[in-house]
Amino acid sequence: MSMELQDLGYEHWVVRELETQVQAEYVRRYGGPDETVMDPATFAAPMRGAFLVGWVGGVPVAMGGIRAHGADAEIKRMYVPDSQRGKGYARVMLAALEDAARAAGYPQIILETGTAQPEAIALYQSSGYAAIPGFGHYKDSPHNRCFAKLLGPS
Predict the structure, then answer these.
(1) Would you say residue 21 has pLDDT above 70?
(2) Contact assessment for residue 72 and residue 104, using Cβ atoms and an 8 Å cutoff
(3) Residue 154's pLDDT band (boundaries 50, 70, 90)?
(4) Helices 89-103 and 118-126, axial angle in degrees (round to 10)
(5) Phi/psi at 55 (nearest 5 deg)?
(6) DSSP for 119-154?
(7) For position 22, what pLDDT does the model report?
């Protein structure tokens, strides 16, 4: 079954529910929630952002957003609920976020993740992302891992 994508924005109730789940995941993996400042306006027009939710059979199975980080697009809160993992939804969401960034005119897409998310690191590396110096709220953390990918034409 294919995943349908919707740009719902960061404040949509479905995104809020998935945000609660991803924050619980961060607490489990890192001992606390992600404290990165998340301004909902940065994920919407005219800010060249988007916040996508992937659906299969009426069930939200993935989410992720892009927002401006300097000249680049930054991926934030990419997440697939436990019950939906291993089905390829993260890879589809990642490609959709890249497409949204490309369509918005960004030359490159960047992201930060952490050492307690080895499956995320493996996904990014297998999708053509290269390690870059740390940035963002956790840039000085020994657990911080950052990646970038140049976006060619669509």
Answers:
(1) yes
(2) no
(3) low
(4) 60
(5) -125, 140
(6) HHHHHHHHTT-EEE---STTTT-TTEEEEEEE----
(7) 96
